[in-house]
Amino acid sequence: AAAGLSYVGAYVINTYKSYDNFLQDKYALLPAVIIICVAVVMFIIGLIGCCATFRESRVGLGLFLAIILVIFVAEVSAFVLGFVYREKIKTDVQGTMRSVFEEYGKNPESAFVDYLQEQLHCCGVKNYSDWTTTQWFNSTGNNSAPQSCCQQEAKNCTGHLDRPQEL
């Protein structure tokens, strides 16, 4: 279980590196760090439990049970906090994404926006109409979204908003 949690925490931190332009709040990594810390503690406690069982120590097994209960309460608390604050995180991420999309075409982050849209098969923050409020859209004057919005199977897609089925 500790190895599995360590893998999940490391995977989240590694994935964060790909999207850190959108997640300016470093507290987004807090759940992953907590998961890794819990995994380390679980490993140590597992060793204590094995030693207590091997030596048949009542005190050691009682301590092991108490620690396991504390960890269970901590995990339930982390789940509840994640559930309670999910909307705040969603709002923060969308706000940051809108600001990055607003700067599209002006800085090196434009390539990241294209990469993100291609990898996640999405267009805009919510949909392709988000591009109509950006400065890039107004400056190009061609009534289109970036070509990274095009579906991979759409041939000859230009990003025009009059053909939303291709986006």
From TrEMBL:
Tell me the membrane topology, using the record's own terms. Answer: Multi-pass membrane protein
Q: Which is a Pfam family this sequence falls into? A: Tetraspanin
- Residues of the signal sequence? none
Q: Which domain of life is it from?
A: Eukaryota
One Gene Ontology cellular component annotation held by this UniProt entry: plasma membrane
State the coiled-coil residue ranges. none
Q: Where in the cell is it found?
A: Membrane
Give the keywords, sorted.
Membrane, Transmembrane, Transmembrane helix
Question: Sorted alphabetically, which SUPFAM superfamilies does this protein's record hold?
Answer: Tetraspanin
Transmembrane feature ranges: 28-54, 61-85
Give the protein name, as stated in the record: TSN36 protein
Give the gene name. Answer: Tspan36
